[in-house]
Structures are given as C-alpha cells and as structure tokens.
Amino acid sequence: MINLETPKKFEGLVESAHQVAINVFRANSRKYDLAEHEYPKELDMLAALMDGMNEGGGMSGAGAGAVGSGSSNGDSGSGNRNGSNMASLLGLIELCWGDVGLLLTMPRQGLGQAAIAAVADEEQLKRFGGKWAAMAITEPEAGSDSAAIRTTARLDESTGEYVLNGEKIFVTSGDRAELIVVWATLDRSAGRGAIKSFVVPRDAPGLHLDRLEHKLGIRASDTANFRLEDCRVPKENLLGSPEIQTAREGFSGVMKTFDNTRPLVAGMAIGVARACLERTRELLSEAGVEIDYSRPLHAQGAAAAEFIAMEADWEAARLLTLQAAWMADNKKPNSLQASMAKAKAGRMGTSVALRCVALAGTIGYGEGELLEKWARDVKILDIFEGTQQIQLLVVARQLLGKSSADLK
Ligand SMILES: Cc1cc2nc3c(=O)[nH]c(=O)nc-3n(C[C@H](O)[C@H](O)[C@H](O)COP(=O)(O)OP(=O)(O)OC[C@H]3O[C@@H](n4cnc5c(N)ncnc54)[C@H](O)[C@@H]3O)c2cc1C
Q: Is the whole-model pTM more than 0.85?
C-alpha cells in the first residue's frame, strides 16, 4: 500500500531542502534571472555544505544525481521501500519551490548522473560518481525523435578510443558540468539499437562550445551548444554494452534513464506551482478574498473557486508523481506512470502559474513579484525530458499496446 505521508526518515531532508530554498535560492532568484550567464557563486558554498551533509546522511538524495534503478537507502526487506527516487523527488520539490533555475545549475546535480546511475558498471560508477554530469541528446535534426540522432561514435582499435563527431544543442549545464553524457550512434544504418551513451569530459579535445542560449526562463541555468570534432574518449567511457543490439534491447537501455528522471522533472513543476499557489493565496488574502473549504465550489467567490480548482489540479499531479517515484524505488516498471506524471505535472505547472499571474492582476505581471518569473521558468518543465505531446504518445502506446512504429 502506498502511504501518502512524507516518510519520517525524509522529514529532515525536506526541512533542510526548504531552508536552502528560502535562504539561498529565493534570496538569489531575481539576481540570476537578470544576470543571465553569470555563474551563481553562492551555490559553491551550498554544494560544499551539501557534500558534507551527504557524507553524514543528512541531505542524502536531495538532487537528481542520486536516483537509480533500485533503492539505495530504502527500508530493506519490508517489501515497501522509499529510497533514493523518493528522497530525490521530495528534495527537488522543496528546492524548486525556491528556484528551479538555480536547482538546475547546482554543482554535481546534473541529470547526466541519473544516466550514469542507470547504466554504468561498478568501475564507471567509481570513476564518474559524484561528478557534475550534463546530458546531451538533442541535435538540430533530433529533438523529440531521439532515435534520429546523427552524432557518430567510431572505435579506433589502434588507440582503444571512441571518436565522436556531431552537434549537440540545448545542453543544460553544458558549460559548467565536468562531464557530458553524449548520445551517439555506432552505426547509423543499424537504427535505435546502435545508439549508446558516452561519458565525455568537458575538457576533452575536440569538444567545442559554440554558444550559450538566451532564454525565456531558468536564466540562472546555462544552456550550451556543442560541436564534437574527432572528439576522443577512452573506450571504457561507453555506458552499457558496446554490442549493437536489437532496436528494442539497445534503445530501451538508454531510454531507461527517463523512468527515473521524468518523475523528478514532474516534481520540479510541482515545486514551482506550489510557490505560485502559496504567494497567490497571500495576495488574495490581502485583497480580502476568503477561501472557505467548508463551502461547495459553487458557493465560493470566483477567485476562491479558481484557486481551489488549481489546488486540486496540483494535488492530482503530486500524487501521480509520488506514485511513479515510489514504483521506481520498489523496482516496479513505471514507464507509463513516469510519463503520466510528467505530462500531468508539466501541464498543471504551466497552467497554474499563468492562472496565478492572472488572479494577481497587474501585481502578477510585474517584476516586483516572482510570479511572472515562475510563469516563465515553469514552461521548460513541459518541454525537456520529453514534451507534453511526447508523454501523451508514450502513455497512449502503453495503454493500447502499440509500438513506436505503430503509433507515431
Ligand atoms: C532550456 C532547455 C534546456 C534543455 N536541456 C536539454 C538537455 O540538457 N539535454 C538535451 O539533450 N536536450 C535538452 N533540451 C532539449 C529538449 O529536450 C527538446 O527541446 C525537446 O525534446 C523537444 O525537441 P525539439 O525542441 O527538437 O522539438 P521537436 O521535436 O521539433 O518538436 C516540436 C513540437 O512538435 C511536437 N511533436 C514532435 N513530435 C511529435 C509527435 N510525434 N506527435 C505529436 N507532437 C509532436 C513537440 O511536442 C513540440 O511541441 C533542452 C531544451 C531547452 C529549451
């Protein structure tokens, strides 16, 4: 049975994350929204503090780097675990209540670590674990259809290195991370089964930064475009099996990462939306709007009714997301639930943020409040790690038992 209370062992983690959200993230939110591309140096001290807390177990799993296919700190033997996926989710919700852009550029919390955790062997975990890793899938000709990537990897037998060539765009933390997990194909004619992920150190020869993007939201987070020109990495940097597998086996390996990361991105939207709802409630209260839960919806004022409907939408997204993370911790296949959660939370986040801006009127649209910023920030959570439309496609395929060839 799923228990909807915050697990007791994570109460400390949630409280610590909340304090960070208030004192570091909120405190610097507007500063780095305005100073796009400037490194938020306040995060270095925070990262050091978190490393210390992680060693002591105090903040273990608060970021994306800690998720995995199984539970590392679960209630072993109980058959009902709340492990690293749940811990990461609860931590991220709190941190994104503070600022999602700053969360996305937290040292050592890049989504690339989730890919490493999902596929790496013991030796690779030792070499790459704990490092700041970005994830580079998207290319000019391959976004939603990630199987269409053109970046190639060729094994140079004489040196024991893979040689990578191609272009990667919109890489979150691509400039600041230490490692970049690059998706490339071993053989373009062999289809999806030939797509593998390679760990490329940020300073590898042949990896060229072309530019940083200017963006609508999450401006504290750097978004980089790269060229890979005869970029060489040791063959031991390939994650998973070097064999070209059948389309289903091979691609499902790299796609497995999403089952862990989609609930986290959903959690980010839940954190931002909660921030919007809390601030809107305060503004409504200051304006004399009463929200009385003892009255039916039709007996509320229009603003109160709208607010209650948004809270219900938020709660639905939150429950779906908790379920998806809980399933990952309990080793239950969760691709369907991960996509449902991401679709619901992405849409809810965008819709709630904009409706809160509307409810707050001119106050909501001005830079005197963070509401307008949250409405800009939240949009990305309905785009990356698979857009709204792609999540719905994944859900439809799963429910109807169709393959990606059957339903495009
Ligand atoms: C700020 C930011 C950060 C990012 N960070 C990363 C990162 O770290 N790593 C990374 O690899 N990528 C990253 N991305 C890229 C992101 O994952 C892609 O933008 C996303 O996957 C969509 O791809 P696309 O932009 O090429 O759009 P397209 O795939 O061209 O899609 C355009 C539109 O068509 C819709 N669409 C596409 N196919 C279908 C279909 N079959 N059915 C119905 N509708 C469809 C899409 O939903 C979308 O609305 C980032 C993007 C942004 C904006």
A: yes
Q: Concatenated DSSP letters for 87-126?
A: HHHHHHHHHHHH-HHHHHT-TT--THHHHHHHH--HHHHH
Give the mutation target among 100, 111, 138 for probing the ligand 1 site: most ligand atoms within 8 A of CB. Answer: 138
> Using CB atoms within 10 A of its CB, is residue 243 exposed (0-12), middle (13-18) or buried (19+)?
exposed
At 74 the pLDDT is: 41
The continuous run of DSSP H or E covering 289 comes out as none
pLDDT tens string 224-243: 999 999 999 999 999 988 88
Indicate the Cα dihedral angle 222, 223, 228, 231, nearest 10°. 30
Whether 278 is a known active-site residue: answer: no
Phi, psi of 293 (to 5 degrees): -70, -10
Determine the distance separating the centroid of ligand 1 and the alpha carbon of 223, expressed in angstroms.
14
Rounded mean pLDDT, 118-125: 90
Query: Which of 140, 266, 121 lies closest to 199 in space, CA to CA?
Result: 121
Q: What is the CA radius of gyration of the chain?
A: 21
